[in-house]
Each structure stands twice: as structure tokens, then as C-alpha cells.
Amino acid sequence: MVFPAPGNPAAILGNRIRLAPLRLDELPAHPQLPPSSRIESQHVTSGPGTPDNPPDNPATMAPLRTTQDDNESGASARHRFHEDGRPLLEPFVIAILDEAMTFIDDILPRRFKPTSEKISPPADSIVQLFKYEILGQTLREIPWESCYLPRNPPKNVGKTGEAWFARASEHPDEPQKGTASFSEFESSLRDNHSEHEAEYTPDVFDARLVLDWTTLRPPAENAKAFQQYRNVSMRIFEMGHKLPPPLSPRVFPVLVITADIGVSYDPDFIIVQIPVNIKTLPEAFYSNGRNLREGEDRLRRKKPTLGVYTSIERCRLIDTHIMWEMATASDAKGWLPM
Fold first, then answer.
1. Could you give the C-alpha distances from 186 to 88, 104, 193, 287, 322, in angstroms and in order?
2. In angstroms, rounded to a whole number, what is the distance separating the alpha carbons of residues 87 and 82?
3. Residue 81 per-residue DSSP state
4. Rounded CA separation 57/280 (Å)
5. What are 159-175's pLDDT values in tens digits?
6. Strands of the chain, DSSP E
7. Whole-structure pTM value
8. Are strands 204-212 and 268-275 parallel, antiparallel or unpaired?
9. Residues β-bridged to residue 212
10. pLDDT in tens, 71-129
11. Is the Cβ–Cβ distance between 109 and 132 less than 8 Å?
């Protein structure tokens, strides 16, 4: 294994908050998920992982590759997986949230370039806009198999890059016109994030809940800290976006993780969305075509184009102001007019 040089941005990029969708067998166990036949391997296998977006076919799934790096052995990493190869829930959540924190705290300020500023009504605050192009070569150099939670590199990784866009703004912590209190940010962004997105985003016509891991654990267990994270929720949604005719609607299947940051109460929370391939999951609605028969109206019965979307969003109270940061990357797939 050749590890990226410390100055290489790939060294701190993670292996899960990417545009390559997570497969069903890369998710923690859930009663609605089929048993995983991908058994964890103690040896490094050759060749790429499975394709980004095919149906999950157990016969073609590559075994999980574990490697040894300078800090911990492959055997230690295997303790974070069930015997069938699925990641355990707590290590899975910690890996993704740690990756998101590194992105917001290190990559955004160091790698993103400012592009412009704007006012975004009804808020009065200035919004700073940024962008960052992650090259395909950089994606290939990500330590996919030696991260805290190893992952097989998706097939064709690095064939294209990822175009990331970010925004940052500061808002007075006041429940008044032109701004909002931190508790209002919590209730609007952290709590029921996807449902609220459908309410305040005009082109979102559906936020379809597919799976929910949060309900599998008692509320008291969810309130306990996953290391530095509390009040963790994890759900899969299909987010439907309408486009003007003759374009087909876009649906983005996403794994959504929300959490408070800090072992005691700190006014600081994070939201992460990661694309996930749920085409073979019976509980899906748009990804498997069930909407064509069961859609509630004409729009929801249309055949959608499945896109991919990932985002990291953080809100924290600093003195008397709220810092709101968000970074996103997406690919709407299909044909779009320029």
C-alpha cells in the first residue's frame, strides 16, 4: 500500500462522504436489510471493488479489504465489523461524523476558494460562497482501505472528480426578523432535517422515508454519546426534486445522519448526507420503480432519474452569533440543458 504524502489533500479526505454511493452491504444491520453475504477478509484482495451504481449482487461483491497502517492493524479494524462484513452501528456513525468534522474544520478553510458573496432573504446576513474541485487523481489516492472503517474503492474511482460548493454565514442569536435563535436553527435544520427541507425548498416534492435506525434503539440509548457525538439519528430518505418539462424529476437517495457535537450540552450540531444505492431494497419507493404503480399523484408516478448528492452542514453558537457552514457535491445524472 502506498500512502499519500502528508501535503496531499487525499491524506485527509475520507472514504464515505463521497459521490460514490454506499451499497446495501456497506450499511449497518437493519431488520429490513437483506443478510449480507460479504464475509470480511483477512487478506488484501486484488482488483477494484464493485461498481458505483449496479444492483447489489452478492455473487459479485468483493470481500472487504483490510490493511495494516502505521497506527493500527487490520485485525483491530475488523472489530468494527459484524462477522457477515457489515459495519457495526457505532463505528460506522463515528467514522462518518469524524470525516465530516475534518472536512468542515480542515478541508473547507484550507482548500476551498472564495468565489462571491450574496444576501439570501429572509436572512440579513452576508453569505460567503466557496468552491473546491477534487481531482480524480486525488480521489484515487484516498486511503480507502486503511481508514478507521475500511472500504473497498468503488469501481472507476477517480474517472471523474468531485465539484464541491460551500457557503458560510454568521447570524445573531436572536429570535427576530432577519435572523433566528440557535434553538430555531436546531428545530428547522437538525430535527427532521429532510422533512423540513421539503417544506422550505420549492422544487422538493417528496421526502420519502425508507429506513430508520434511530427507532431501533431506546430514546435513552440514542441520547448517549457516541464518543463526542450525542442525540444521533440515522435514516435513509429519497428526496424528490421536480424540474421543468420536458426534464424528468430527479430523486436523490441519501443516508442522513444528524448529531449534537460534544459530550455535554454544547450549542453545536452537524448533518451529513451521503448517496446510497437502494435499487434492490423493497422498502425503497422511487429507486426500485415502486412509485410507478403506487405514486399518490401524477408527479410521483413519473419515472425519475436517480442522482447522487452528498453534503455536510454544521451550526454552532460562538459567543452571540451562530456560524452556519455547508458544503455540497452532486451529480443530477441524465441530460440537463446548459
1. 28, 18, 9, 30, 11
2. 6
3. B
4. 9
5. 999 999 999 999 999 99
6. 113-119, 126-134, 162-172, 204-212, 229-241, 250-261, 268-275, 305-306, 308-318, 321-331
7. 0.84
8. unpaired
9. 235
10. 444 456 778 898 888 999 999 999 999 999 999 999 999 999 999 999 988 889 999 99
11. no
